[in-house]
Records
---
Amino acid sequence: MNIKTFFIALNILLFVSLIVYSQNDVKVDLKKKSRTFNHPPMKDYGLKEYIYLSKDLPHSENKPWKLVCQMPYNCHFQPWIELESTEGKEVSLNSSNPLVLYLTKTEKYTTIAGKQTYEAKNWVSGEGAVYTIPAGVTVKSVKYRETGYDTKFAGSFECNDNDFNILWKKGARTAYLCMRDWFYDCPDRERVGFWGDGTPELNQCFYAFDSVSHALCKDLVLRPLQKGFYPGQQLEFLGQYGLWFYYMQTGDIKSISAVYESTRSFLFDTYKFGKKNQWFDWGKDIKDAAVMENCFMYIDLKSLKKMALLTGHSSDTLAINLKLDSIKSTFNSSYWKGNYYMSSQVTTPDDRANAMAVNAGLADSSKYEAIYNNVLTKYTNASCFFDRWVFEALCTMGKQEYALLRMYNRYKTMIPASFTTLWEHYDRWWASWKNTYDDASSLNHGWNPPVIILSQIIAGVSPVEAGWSTFHVFPKEAFLTSLKVVVPSIKGDIKVEMNKTTTEYSLNIISPVNTKAIVGIPKGSFSSIKSIEVNGITIWNGSYLGGVKGISWNGEDTEYIKFNANSGKWNFIGTGTLPISSPKSLPMAPDNELLLDKKTWSAWASVKDSLFLFSGAKIPIQVPAANAIDGDHWTGWRDMTRTQYPGQWLKIDMKKKQKFNKFVLDNTWAQWDSPDKFSVSVSNDDKNWGTPIATGEGKPGISVITFPMQNSRFIKISQMGTDTTYNWSVYEIDVFRTR
């Protein structure tokens, strides 16, 4: 066994051990808690029509065949089928998402004679269903039953840059998909209740869903801590990002009182510094855990002090203060290296560690520029789980423009993807251990943070007092020129709309009854500011003038000119000079084009249809050429004979001549299998191909290929390059004609 094979085998063993450990040690406790807190039942959305079928129904064939069906978004579902058959035929039903095979075997149904219906007994997740139909069976209709946690999408975020709108919506859908019995890490591969995944999922509930979702949040707050189960994740949860976040959103003193003693015990007695396998992040292995754990402990102790005062444990504050002082007094001398924080555990600075020093308040503002220039703009060790804290630190430092740019650049392959959820890893890249493409990473993982970052920090809507009796609106919109957000607080919906031009900054706020808003007009949005009016009356022209009932002065700092606003509707307008420019291009508007219907097409390739053994579980996945045109971006064709080599081809017969001038090769599922180099040719007889109509290099995930309008029947895509690491795949090809 060579060293590469050894490490791959070791990683598989560790991964499987993680799943087994997680399921054995977490699920039992969570099941007990689910019964204890009497969750509302799962919502049954009823039987629904698929939005796309790979065959028109009714349909039958004289050989076994597959029917591939699409839902409008990723969801929990049970496939349903109506058919006519003789007795004893076996029909199979499952999701097109191969990860579900980790937990849920493909369901099989044996037919009786005549007309009949069948609905799968177990729910699965995904964006498509696959029915495997025996020869001679007629499928008359198919549907799916969607179920899910009984909460509504009550929050929203919109801005003038649709890339961020897509991120918010995909983030909310991802969070919802990871809610059911408890907060899942993902609904397909594991369904484990890690504290790490649970933290951003809890956060997002208060900005994306209605108050019914708060029951799951309360469960996580009250869940008994588990010694040895990734203590770093529990440390991340026990301060302002978990326990205190929940309290500020709900004002639920009873739950905070219930967990005070166990939280204090964990922070003072259970947690041990410097232990291996604490787990702070999934990302690259340059993890400066020594700095991170000091930062999170400091954050947790500050929250513990507030909890002590809140719950009648004020006598504990002396010990808490001593522990806080011991961290603060040695932090800079131990870890500050002149331009960044770094411990002896690593040889290069870690973006995660330096971000947490900012978030914890252990890095004072004099260090911000050095951290920004030397670390946060140069390193991307953080996974999409931990980047939440990097984005936050950048905004704290006044670098919200770069926070948005970093968010866009890190999510740039997820934004245009046909998948409606956010993934476990950026670019499907397993940074830890293997440092390579990970086919078994989930494509709907709850730890992604865009919802909380965009609603709470970029839009700037956050509680100041527990239960939203007072909240602030401090936008950090950077280069965005408009945004609109709805936050479903327990006091009612808070609505904020911002628009800015070169001369005016408008901020409209609807504040619910029995709340007070602290509204900040951001100085950084202006090069010069002349006046501020509210509901048409000037209240500031360099100093506070007053004159509007329900509005009072709240002061001024380096970032904002601030006012108190009682409940009601308020329109703040700041006038002056505003620089309107952006380092990021706005996304292109969709082309006016027609997607050609593929239902009758056929496809074949330069190699025989085959399968591959999926992930460490060695699950056999069929990858025939027909998958490339079945309408499902989770299923695809792969050449499994060897890695990329010149001369591979995939052909498509459209059955008749058609006009077209654009292809989209979608390889998002097998992102790094995009062609090294490609050539596209067309023909009317599958013999005379002529000069290629397009050549180029594939891009990870999606390759868009345009060319002059063609009128042909056959299409041949050839792979002309070499890649010694990755196979060539086409997970879906879409063919378009400009209208």
---
Amino acid sequence: MTSMDQIIQRQLNPFDPVTLYTINFWQEQQSSSLNVDSIHQNIITNIETVLEQVAQEHHPRTLILTGDSGSGKSYLLGRIKKLFNTKAFFVYVNPWPHSDYIWRHILRQTVDCLMKTPDGQTDSQLLLWLKNLLTFQNSSLLKKITGERRVFIRNLKAIYPSGIYNPNDFFSALYYLLDTEYSPVACEWLRGDDLDEGDLKCLGIKSSIDSEDSAQKIITNLGIISAASQPIVLCFDNLDNIPRLLNGTLDLQALFNVNSSIHTHYPQNFLIIISIITSTWKQNSELIQPADKARINAGYFHLKPITLEQGEAILEARLNPLHSLAKAKPKSAIFPLSKEILEQKFPRGRTLPRNILELGRQEYEQYKLKLLNQTQNSQDFTLETKLATFKLIWQENYKKTQKKISKITNLAAPELIRMLQEVFNALKFQKVKTKLLSGKYASHSLSYQKQNQEPIIGVVWTEDPNMNSFYNTMNACQKVVNQKLCQTLYLLRAAEVGNAENLSHQIYRKIFQGRSKNIHIKPNLESVHFLATYHSLVNAALANELVIEGNIINMKEFEEIIFDSQILNHCSLLQDLSIVVSPDTQKQQKELDKNEIKDFVLNLIRQQSFMERDSIIENTLNQFVKIEHSTIDIIIAELEGENKIKIIAPTSKLDEQLVCFVPG
């Protein structure tokens, strides 16, 4: 075993800024070893009591969870999900793109989360919920799930003779959820996808869930029948990026309209947790109707700063894995930090969890640099490190996005358009407006100008497989062209566009083929990953959760970093829209991919200052799963030749070599 100083030189900083903030608890896997049970324990206990009330009485409960940025609201939601994994089903609801789409967004998020598999289970939340429901209602009913669909529907209609919206279609979807062959399509219907006629026929269902009213009623259905199972916890988080009213204030009223509607039905087995920054709540709460605020019937819970003893426990949990590697354990469980440093930094004896973690990062890094006889005083070096850290954060979020989004239709058209709108705003385009189309599919479109006086460009994004929907979208596009609302119209669609016999295809050809200046682009999944990653970081920036080198990055700074990093230049959809410059040849693309890996390796070493060669290779292979070990060796050699890094003891075995960053 080695000394603690050697371990610190070789290992990654345990307070890695890439992993210091938590957003979606279904994307972030919290380690139980890092939890400090005493932190916010009173709130956890109170929420458990509320959850038990919902389970017993089947009346919805709503609570407000407030706290300053960095107080651990999102992390606490993750802890609650993990602790009460067996008592309830958990749904994380992120910001909705338009207030007139909020019910459909909540339904989509609910079904998506119910399709997740809880810790220690083999079935998804949705299957657990359905099996619990059937077992509770009628033990013999579960035996009939592979039998006749009509018998299944008739049994459930007998159990629920009233109160269920569109029972034939709804119960038919539940029936097919239990059939592995048809369950994916049944889930797509339940989440509100606009299915084609063939899939609807297979499910024995008349039409898709295509309106706010129908989505609201399906959510009510879920609440009613879940009374026979376990509560569903709806967690609303990151509310600083929800739609805004004309006066610039957040449209929180839309959320509270939803909340009040849920409270008007019985039974309803929902616990609704609204997590919001304290200052955001104070600025906007007075704009909410008093009758809707009265529906907050489970109270207000505020996350207070933690004690230094609790902060010390956070540091100890992070450092313990490194201490266990040392031949002789340090006298202090938080070495290379100390209680004196904590007391000096936080003389009032209390602070936020984020501040503790940031102090840990800084002190650990300073100690590591001291071991290397280096300092970090150069302003230029700090700016470089800032950009390097951001690129690592981007890569980590991009990787999570890849796991979350397996196909373009995982996202609804309004969500895709909202993501494009955010990118266009960052690029300082003029007059970026949603709803270029009129009617039902308005939220599938936007328009913009690159600069004032330049032509107006329209974008329509639709992936609905239903040809009737595509026909209606094409009709709406034709109206835009006829009225000359834009000079160029882009259709973004990877799905099929029908054949010559379809009326929709005929309109499509007229608008987007031949000599038309309107263009059809087939977006790829990788481009959607770029847009979704950018969107997740916008959410973080607006919630004051994006921290780089100890600084909270606001939206203006975030957009500047995006511009400097040129990350979005790699998005092929933005290239096809002529927004960024694309590589000219396949060879250039391969070189671009290699440069991305090289950039990652350099940023990683720059951030850590000093690393084991094996650790560099391991982290890079985890980030880029399709590359070869030898490629990383070549990149390390190139970086050393460019005098950007230095290999310590180059004649040693490869697994014993250390690599040091060389400041420019």
---
Amino acid sequence: MAHRYGFEFLHWKRILVGFLFLSLAFLQNASSKQPNVVVFLADDAGWGDYGINGNRQLSTPNIDRIAREGATLDRFYVCPVCSPTRAEWLTGRYHLRGGVVGVSTGQERLDLDEHTIADSFKAAGYSTGAFGKWHNGSQWPYHPIARGFDEYFGHTAGHWGEYFDPELEHNGTMGRYQGYIVDICTDRAIDFISQHHDRPFFCYVPFTTPHSPWAVPEDDWARFKDKPITQLGTIKDREVIDETRCALAMVENQDRNVGRVLQELERRGILDDTIVFYFSDNGPNTMRFNGQMKGKKGTTDEGGVRVPGLIRWPRKIPAGVVVPQIAGAIDLLPTLLSLASVERIGDKPLDGLDLSPLLTKTQDKTEVKDNWPARMIFSTWAGKTSVRTDQYRLDDKGLLYDMITDPGQTKDVSSDCPEIALALRQAVARWDAEMKAEAAKKKTATPSQVSRQRSQVDPRPIHVGFKEFPITILPARDGDPRGNVKRSSNAPNSSYFVNWTTPDDAVVWKVTVQNAGRYNVTIDYTCPVADAGSELELSFASSSLKGIVAPGWDPPLYDNQDTLPRPPAESKMKPFRTLSLGQIELPSGAGELRLRALKVRGDSVMDLRRITLTYIDE
């Protein structure tokens, strides 16, 4: 009997040892598995638009959770406007190095010799997807599918004119989708996570809000439309209270969508295996509460470039970590690749630093802090440059502020610290000269030129006719109006061409045709019924195609888009009709693709949203 019991004990002991061995192996494998990565990017949200940063007028529990359960980069800096920040985080390099000198008319395009963080994750075997506002180039090979992403859904331009039931792009094809733009793009991001949850994925969710136009779902607006605003911006007489209300409502909507993604990660059992990062692309787009910092979007002062930088990954980042050292968008590529143990693709020198020693629990924080290098982060826009150190900011006028004792930039301390002021002025002069030299080498505009020529079309041609991506969309924002033709608004991104009245008028796109051959041509237009029938000619080199603008299609401007009146600089939108012009034979090479009217039937030819060229064959 004792022998039998001894045998059974040995038998169960072996089973237990085997189970423990398998469990340890599983845990070791789980801990060595490369993490997923989700990056959220807000559009025009300021540092002060979140509960975690002291805003008592809204609730952002899901975004706050990332900070509460992870780390906060307390002094995190981006660019004064949208597309430069996107270029910097995607490459780890200052945006001017990559040819991004503006926000529209092609000036937002990221040079083709730059490699993105998505290139690196894709090369490491990750599934990669982006869902929302891209803003670093629309046509292949500037398109996100050519920059490391397997899937893209959203709008490649800057701000978008339709937030409800919008027309959006999926992998090169335009379509109309029902709902609110942030909800729709988040749905697609969740679908992507659902499809790829069993292997490492990199999911980029660049939101469209709280960028104008001021449009938010009714339920979100209902919570704010009559709400007293008691926390005000630093220049109180410049704050438009309804715009503040709408911006906060948009951030709350965004927070709910962040929560939906976190819930999907939890549902799949992979939340703690996923690095989650949240930030914004510039300071607030209106004068509103921002921690009493000076400046807003478009300025290089603290309030224009300091935003939340929040990261969660319990496997290696302890909850509640606050990093006091300055950091910025240029640091995200080296940091996220390091945390995920992914090798970087590309060999251009980085401007950013790997912040992982400041974040992870495997490091001795005292030792890291003592050995962390002193650094400067430069911010520039419209030819104005500011520089930030851990203690000081030299503003774009050359005034020096001690940001520790004077975070609102109220007292110039240049006379008290002349050596520091001189050193930082010299640093700015060297940096500006370096950026100007890079622009000259690439023959792109310098920052000061861009400030004078922001509405001019970028001289780099648009590429047409790639076999791997046969659809090329040529929107109005990338075209050059000639004669009487003009844009429907001063903001080109979501504009269309109007005032087309004579045969001397035309619209031109600078293109390079990669592959000679046949192309299908469609145009998206509106035209009063009485004006229908104008004869068009599309020409390139020696090739041409003629067509008739018909039938008439003259819908009213949308009346379901705006919570608040649309700013005058932004176009009110309308539904455009697609007209097939037929096929054209295009030779390879560079030149002007020109659309003109041979005969004008009525008072106007048409309003034009875009031309689409689809390569068929050689």
